[in-house]
Amino acid sequence: MSNVFSRILVGVDDSDVSSEAVAFATRLAAEHGGRLIICNSVNWLPVVTQIASSGAIIDPTPAVDDLKAEGEALLDRAMEIAERGGVIAQRVALEGEPALNLLEQAAERKCSLIVMGTHGRQGAERLFAGSTTEAVLRGSAIPVLTVRAGTTIAAPGKRCFETIVAGVDESEPSNAAIHTILDLPAEDRRHVIFYSVAGAREDEADQAHRVVGKAVGLANARGISAKGRVIAGHPDEALIASAQQQGADLIVLGSHGRHGLHRLFLGSVAEGVVRKSPLPVLVVRTREDVPVPERIPAGARTAVPEPSHA
User: Fold this and answer.
1) Residue after which a domain boundary falls, among 83, 111, 141
2) Does 153 reside within a domain?
3) What are 235-268's pLDDT values in tens digits?
4) Which of 39, 132, 177, 206 is 20 to 30 A from 15 (CA-CA)?
5) Four-residue CA torsion sign, 165, 166, 167, 170
6) Taking 50 as the threshold, does the pLDDT of residue 130 lie above it?
7) What's 269's domain CATH number?
8) Cβ–Cβ contacts within 10 Å for residue 80, how many?
9) Average pLDDT score, the chain
10) What is the model's pTM?
11) Which residues pair with residue 38 across a beta bridge?
């Protein structure tokens, strides 16, 4: 069993892509003998705040109860998807800010992977506008696998992953992504191709060749056959196009967020790949590169404020 698929956390909301994420996470868990944890977090604070700010004398409890009931219904639907896929999943109902809760659950339950749909209530055009997926990608210390609506998935009867394309540079997150690929079962990485994007300058091309050469060398040292290629163009678009040309099942890359140094596949490029890719995307970061998330006061996550009497 591959470590990255040993304990999978998937977050669910009311979007269609959320159901696709659950189905894909279920398939991965079944394929690798992994455990599946399905999590929904009801963030009722904005609703209560809106009611209170209106000045109306309204008890927010019924609205909060409706949101909780909706969350339970979403978990019921997700559990049914897992059951149909032959996986006995664990359900977790939480209250509070979804991204922070997902990250805390991943840490507390020692999860090895988070699976997320790449758009929720705001739609695909607002993917990285304060979305839960964005916050999880920026804050997760473990790999995050994203799927979009209509993501191309291997046909039933085939393994989810056989051909993997990876974007690499000289960074620590990139090294972490390379080693994540190399640690997969042989069946998941029958074909591995490392890509680096070179700029117009000769020294950039030389650097890109060194990067892919190093990645291929690491693979060969583990007895893994891999190829390395240098490409040109806008990094996210070039990587996606190359993956499609290779018939890849997965794109893997390391990400620094916005503050990494000496980076080619930086946070914004990772976001571009996640946003545009018709294939599943696995984003890997090092723990040292993960920011400490801002905590929300406990009262905002657990208690229903008293209705306003203004």
Assistant:
1) 141
2) no
3) 999 999 999 999 999 999 998 754 433 344 445 6
4) 177
5) negative
6) no
7) 3.40.50.620
8) 12
9) 83
10) 0.84
11) 10, 91
